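Sample A.
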Amino acid sequence: MTIAVDVGQIRNLEIAALAWISAHRGDFALDDDAFTADGQVDLTWKPLGELAQTCVSVRRRTPPSDPLHACVCDLLAFAWQQTGRGELFLRLQQLEPFATYPLEVYSVFAGAGFRHAGYEAAAATVARTRGWRRTEQEPTRRLGLLNAERRSGIHRQERPAQALSRTWLGGLPEPWAFERTAGYALTHVVFHLTDWGRTAQDVPEDLAAYLADWLPPWLDTCLDAGLWDLAGELLIVAASLPHPPDTAMLQDAWTRLARAQLDSGAIPLTAPDTTDEPDPGFVHCYHSTLMAAFAAALSVDLLTRETDGPGLRTEDTRNRYDGQGAPR
């Protein structure tokens, strides 16, 4: 029996989450710490890049007539302005020529049509060196870098399938081996394979079948444990696979995630230890709130648009609403 999913509930969660993100846009702004040798990248460039990626992904799945489309376009323009319209990536290139995070963040903007020719030329020069191509990375990070290079117009002979085969998910591990670290690794493998939900058909059939079997119990485990951030990422994966997820699973997951959302619209990384804990701050809410908004946009789009066949999504969403909200 097919259970109808309450799309309105998911939509309301998305609206509240994006309202919180908009109200806290100043917390995503770059400061001088973003350019110091010992600066905390995870508290400067990483949040800004994640804001941009979420906005790009929500924009792609939201029609221009929807007020949320204008909201994420505005936030994306804000994020681009924070980079000096791309100029600050050149500054990072001078500070850390072989760091990969500048290209990874820049590629988010490049994939959305926000480009800086000078930085791309500089990045391409470094990418031709042996030092860059022999950089040792975890396989999941390698897969992400290959996607970042492709988005930025840099191409190498190494194929994503090579990196995929060395990831945790690519090995189709025993399902009981799932834990938090593996969970974040597997979600990012799917993010990179599908270019953050653009191309569901790029998930290999064996991986898609494996995830169809084991994603539901893993998601249920995370929700039971109050791991709201990882649960949001797993919901993104569910909406990015070639075959639509089980509707009963979706309804249960979104109901539980909606209960975790605070009155402010934020969603904490994890459930609090006690019911009387104060609202967590920005650092403990921003990522999980972004991921919930991202997952909601994909899920609403998936549940409301037509499919091309029974149980199979063949539509490539790479150009669904791209080009709306041009760079400025």
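Sample B, a different protein:
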Amino acid sequence: MNLFSSKHSGKAPSPKPQSAFREWRNALVFAVGAATLIRWSAVEAYHIPTPSMENSLLVGDYLFVSRLHYGPITPQTPLQIPLTHQSVLGIKSYSDLIQLPTYRFPGFSSIQRNDVVVFHVPHEQQVPADQRTHLIKRCVAVAGDTLEIRNGQVFLNGKPGEAAGQPQTNYFMEVETPNDDVRQALHSQGVVDYNQPDGIPQAVTDPETGKQGFAISCTASVAEYFRKQPYVKALTVTDTHVPDLTLFPDAADFHVSNAVSAAPHHWQLDNYGKLPVPKKGQTITLTPDNAAMYYKIVAQYEHNDGITWKDGMIQQNGQPLKQYTIKQNYYFMMGDNRHNSEDSRFWGFVPEDHVVGKAVFVWLSLDPYGDFLHKIRWNHLLHPVS
């Protein structure tokens, strides 16, 4: 006796074959879904548009960024609607959209000092974190470190930090005759001026001395090369002074509000800190001396209610906040092009939940000034990011 017999006998009818259009549509849906899943959970491609990481990464580099290293993070906003479409849909702000709590899946690595990291820019508060601009910088200090910069040298916890990448510095190179031969030497050494149509630096006059030469940004090894050239009369670090209340934490809330520290530090790009980097579980006693360091953490990154800034102190529900316990880890990021990078020295710490992934390798590199035969930088292809 057949226990699986049916009242219908004979062969089951064959399924109706799909039309070519339906097969094409299903394949497209599957491909888009698979690509979206891989992009969210595993790897994503990024393009370097600015020189803030030169000479470690070059303008025109295309990178693969691994989300698996630190663990993929779930989307905060399931609906991603461009700003231009908000008014049409009656959306006044992103707070009108559904926003979900984020969760980071386990990764096989934690964020380490000197990792090159892609993250969501912290100061675009008008949109949720996962819809902000992506930045790429080097993590120079992790949660629990105390950072200091002395004459351009990074110190961590009182000791010189390990050098990584190919940091660049701004110099004025005084020369006897600023001619095309010198410009060609600059080009051959990889010195680029992205403000020039051909990328080659143009001769300028030093406003302080009236001497002629070139304003350049280059690595220490390139600077040493030019110091040995007979046509170079002097090579000096350019003044990097920025106006007071420009850097974090004197400017407590970069581009978001006018909150400034009640006890300014007057730090500069090459002489900065000592600055403690907040760590999860750490309890901070808040005073007018340090409140500006933690204002964005309390008011924005950790989503506390009733937070305001008044008289140089953080207030909650109209009362000064005396203590606060940090809810997540934070990191201090800097560009390798140290004098030409808007980074944590300007806008402060990067929260862990803003981190996207780790830059792994360059899969394509296009020279924006190269001709047809020299457009691809072959020596930079499949170049690991370090």
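Observation for Sample B: Confidence is low (pLDDT under 50) at residues 1-9, 29-41, 81-86, 88-92.
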